Structure formats: C-alpha cells, structure tokens
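User: Sequence recovery, please. Input:
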C-alpha cells in the first residue's frame, strides 16, 4: 500500500516517518528528488536525491515523475520508478507537500492519504525556528504557506495531530498496521491458512 503523508512544513512529517521506519518492519521510504540544497544532517540517496534544476526539468519533460511541485522556491518530486520499485516490496511512505498529495489523489486513488497538523500555529512557528535550517524569510514563507495548506484538511481520509510525538507516531503506525489487516492486503497470507482447514476454501 502507498501512504501519502502530507501537511505544512515543520509539522513533523519527517520526524514521524523516521519513527515509523524504525519501528515497523517492511516499510519503505520513497526518496524524492529535489533542487534544494542539502542540509548538513542529510544524506544523498537516503533523504533526497539532490539534483540541478536542469536535471529536474528534464525529468518533468520525460514524464518520469509521479508528482512534482515547487515548494518554497525549490522543485520537489517523486519519481515513478521509486514508486514502482519500492511499492512492489511492501508498504511505501511518501513525505510530500499538499500540492503533490493532491496530484497523487488523481493518479493513485487507492493510496492512503494522511494529513499531519501541528497542535497550533504558534507551535508550528516554534518548531520551524527550533529546527534552525531556514532563514527568517524562509520561515515566514513556510508559515504563510501553512495558512493555505491547512485549509485542505477536509480532502484527507486521515488526520494526525502531532502534539505529543509518541502519541502521534502511534497513531500513524496504527493507520499503517490496520491497513495491513484489510481483507485485500491479507488475502495472500489468508488463503493457505484457509486451505489448511478445507481444500475448497
Ligand atoms: P516536517 O518534515 O513536517 O517539515 P520535521 O519533522 O522536520 O517537520 O519537524 C520540524 C521540527 O519539529 C523538528 O525540529 C522536529 O524535531 C520537531 N518536532 C517534530 N515533531 C514534534 C513534536 N511532536 N513535538 C515537538 N517537536 C517536534
Ligand atoms: P524540506 O525542504 O523541509 O525537506 O521539505 C519541504 C516540503 O517539501 C515538505 O512539505 C515536504 O513534504 C515536501 N516534499 C518533499 N519531497 C517532496 C516530493 O517529492 N514532492 C512534493 N510535492 N513535495 C515534497
């Protein structure tokens, strides 16, 4: 199953996704392409594929992206190959912005869409400042975008309020694990069990 995790910048998507990846087996992360500069804490190919604007534009032209958007002045996108390759291996998490999530709604109708919200706008501002990666101007831009993005909450099937981290991570893990219990996801494991009871099942 594909899980699209979205929400305003600074709400805690990356933190939550890292928790899920560490705590649930057989979950993969879809590494995005971006034209933004690498942060010191980030690793090429693990956090993002860092590419030039020209390379990104070529990917758009060649229709190699499942979705893409300009977010806070940089290009971000998920390649089709990333989804095809990793999606085959089990559950796949995408951490993308709201515009990208809306594109995915059109193209991957069966995916699970999760909107992460901070407990308040003040706390969002505090988290963006605390992270310390952005200039004051960039933080201002992210807060302005958040005002627009938050209005899209009703388009998402699941909402995770990221107030207390442990609880929010538990909610996200619960969404993923409960999806695994759906009949369609369980079919492969279920059939041999049923056959053990009766050949005609
Ligand atoms: P996003 O990926 O949505 O932009 P991050 O995961 O980078 O957001 O989180 C932004 C900042 O907020 C980081 O410094 C992170 O450690 C912090 N953070 C995330 N979740 C919580 C939480 N529940 N409580 C307090 N701080 C948090
Ligand atoms: P950051 O620069 O803080 O890592 O990410 C900024 C925003 O870009 C976040 O909201 C993040 O979810 C989003 N983002 C990351 N990868 C992608 C992607 O592949 N596509 C889209 N549309 N947004 C992305």
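Assistant: Recovered sequence (201 residues):
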């Amino acid at each position: 199953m594909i899980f699209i995790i979205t929400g305003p910048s600074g709400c805690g998507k990356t933190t939550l996704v890292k928790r899920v990846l560490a705590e649930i087996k057989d979950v993969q992360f879809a590494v995005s392409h971006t034209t933004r500069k690498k942060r010191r804490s980030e690793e090429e190919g693990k956090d993002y594929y860092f590419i030039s604007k020209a390379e990104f534009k070529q990917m758009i032209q060649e229709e190699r992206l499942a979705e893409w958007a300009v977010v806070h002045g940089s290009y971000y996108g998920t390649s089709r190959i990333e989804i095809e390759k990793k999606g085959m291996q089990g559950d796949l998490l995408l951490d993308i912005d709201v515009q990208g999530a809306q594109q995915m709604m059109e193209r991957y109708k069966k995916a699970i869409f999760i909107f992460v919200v901070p407990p308040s706008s003040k706390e969002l501002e505090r988290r963006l400042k605390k992270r310390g990666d952005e200039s004051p101007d960039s933080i201002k831009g992210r807060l302005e975008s958040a005002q627009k993005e938050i209005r899209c909450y009703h388009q998402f099937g699941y909402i995770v309020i990221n107030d207390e981290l442990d609880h929010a991570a538990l909610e996200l893990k619960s969404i993923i694990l409960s999806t695994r219990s759906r009949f369609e996801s369980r079919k492969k494991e279920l059939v041999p069990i049923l056959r053990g009871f009766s050949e005609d099942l």
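The CA atoms of residues 191 and 201 lie 8 Å apart.
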